[in-house]
Amino acid sequence: MIEEIGRVSGVIWYLLKERGGVSISGVASAVKAPQSTVYMALGWLAREDKLEFVTKKRGGCSLN
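Now predict its structure.
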């Protein structure tokens, strides 16, 4: 499982590098993995201080 979370973290990292800011739901939609794995990968990247969360006026967050 840890290997899969690491792989999905890499996919998310490259997605954000290409697109810039993306909503959390946008990340979950773009990555071909179970939603729970995507959220675990986001947590991994956040813990590694690889993400910047930006609160938007209309709710939600974006990842930069």
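The beta strands are 22-23, 53-55, 61-63.
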